[in-house]
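Re: [ENG-882] Designed sequences occasionally contain unexpected residues at chain ends

Forwarding the minimal case from QA. Structure tokens:
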């Protein structure tokens, strides 16, 4: 994985009715018979950089939309300043407004971690939307606040400053510690992954990830329980679930909860069941590109014109 610096000149903005400006890019061909593929990032994630290289690979023959959730990365808060709170419903509305702004009549969507909870809220509103959702992918996500995981503590660890550290060294150490939590022990012990981890650290430093925003995102994920509504998700929407057994951020048990309520969801087939929260860094880029493309290109769903 060779990271390519983001060209800020290629970033576009969608001004929302709330005054927020959502930073986004549409990768891939301007014209394609395949539906746009919208990717929703998770807690502390910055879509314009963190989806690399998966988004770039997926965009070889279809439009892929990457964006930053409100108030993080290149997205801009409203003139009044940062929100005092952020809710998952608000972030779901942001995604809907972005798709409307792009004038897509039908889309496929992937939601990762917190982004998967956001996607579930969108799916529950599918019949009311001005566009159709044909395929949805729920990756390393939850329908109820995960037990045993303190999201605030995980993503905003308490400072354990060392007297001989510079500010830059401390930032590197805390960032690396956070990223290591996204993988399992076997992945971290494999020398082949050392360079990839360092590149993820580099990517994390490129974008603005304000601590107050991450805190508000973490708080937005508390006391969430969508279980009673999930059976209302339309069976006309094809669903795929991705979740590794060694995910220590959102435990593997959360997948079973979702599947028990969304019974028509498929489970992805992988070379091994043990993989961590950053599922896209396991098994190779070619594997995920093919698996996702095969699912999205399933012709059992009648397609609408864009």
């Amino acid at each position: 994985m060779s990271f390519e610096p983001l060209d800020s000149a290629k970033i576009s903005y969608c001004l929302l009715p709330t005054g927020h400006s959502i930073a986004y890019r549409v990768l891939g061909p301007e014209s394609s018979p395949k539906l746009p593929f919208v990717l929703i990032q998770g807690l502390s994630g910055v879509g314009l950089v963190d989806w690399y290289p998966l988004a770039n690979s997926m965009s070889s023959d279809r439009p892929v939309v990457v964006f930053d959730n409100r108030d993080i990365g290149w997205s801009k808060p409203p003139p009044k300043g940062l929100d005092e709170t952020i809710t998952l419903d608000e972030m779901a509305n942001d995604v809907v407004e972005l798709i409307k702004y792009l004038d897509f009549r039908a889309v496929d969507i992937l939601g990762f971690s917190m982004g998967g909870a956001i996607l579930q809220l969108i799916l529950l509103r599918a019949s009311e939307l001005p566009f159709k959702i044909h395929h949805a992918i729920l990756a390393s996500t939850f329908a109820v606040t995960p037990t045993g995981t303190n999201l605030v503590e995980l993503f905003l660890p308490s400072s354990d400053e060392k007297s001989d550290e510079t500010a830059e060294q401390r930032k590197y150490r805390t960032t690396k510690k956070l990223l290591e939590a996204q993988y399992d022990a076997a992945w971290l012990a494999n020398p082949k992954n050392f360079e990839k981890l360092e590149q993820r650290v580099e990517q994390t430093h490129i974008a603005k990830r304000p601590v107050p925003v991450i805190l508000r995102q973490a708080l937005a994920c508390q006391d969430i329980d969508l279980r009673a509504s999930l059976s209302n998700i339309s069976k006309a929407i094809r669903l795929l679930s991705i979740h590794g057994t060694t995910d220590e951020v959102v435990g593997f048990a959360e997948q079973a909860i979702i599947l028990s309520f969304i019974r028509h969801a498929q489970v992805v087939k992988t070379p091994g069941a043990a993989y961590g929260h950053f599922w896209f860094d396991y098994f190779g880029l070619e594997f995920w590109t093919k698996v996702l493309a095969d699912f999205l290109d399933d012709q059992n769903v009648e397609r609408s014109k864009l």
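QA comment: On inspection the terminal residues look reasonable. Residues 24 and 67 are 4 Å apart (CA to CA). Proposing we downgrade this to a documentation issue.
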